[in-house]
Amino acid sequence: xxxxxxxxxxxxxxxxxxxxxxxxxxxxxxxxxxxxxxxxxxxxxxxxxxxxxxxxxxxxxxxxxxxxxxxxxxxxxxxxxxxxxxxxxxxxxxxxxxxxxxxxxxxxxxxxxxxxxxxxxxxxxxxxxxxxxxxxxxxxxxxxxxxxxxxxxxxxxxxxxxxxxxxxxxxxxxxxx
Length: 177
Hints:
Elements: H1 5-14, H2 20-32, H3 39-45, H4 53-63, H5 76-101, H6 115-124, H7 135-149, H8 155-165, H9 170-174
Helix pairs in contact: 1-7, 2-5, 4-5, 5-6
């Protein structure tokens, strides 16, 4: 009840709740990796405006594998940093997919905001209007993120696990589910 999504993400990656210092370092790492390569903008332009945001998002997550070719032969040591990159970049891509679907310009991440505030900012701000985060919506979305963090064993999770067991690039594996 008193945890946030990044605390739960840390727990799932490292197997224990973070200390205050570990949490601060983890949130800084996630913020650092939230920006996506500018070339990703060109990928979005290849989709027609009526494309479903989820289809665009899946393509964009798979596209990230092109920026991390060293992960084609992913080793266990790479998994934690890759998980952090995914936690950081997937909300950015989701917001970009949404913005593209409604014909609005992409909004860059704002590292002065916490994880959930930043996602809401990227989804609902415009270049000329700053988004004021409603604390009730922020709290509800944070709980939704926590609920989705442990995704159990549904069909998409099984698909990702099967793809991942082949040693393929983790971004490509995530895009299968």
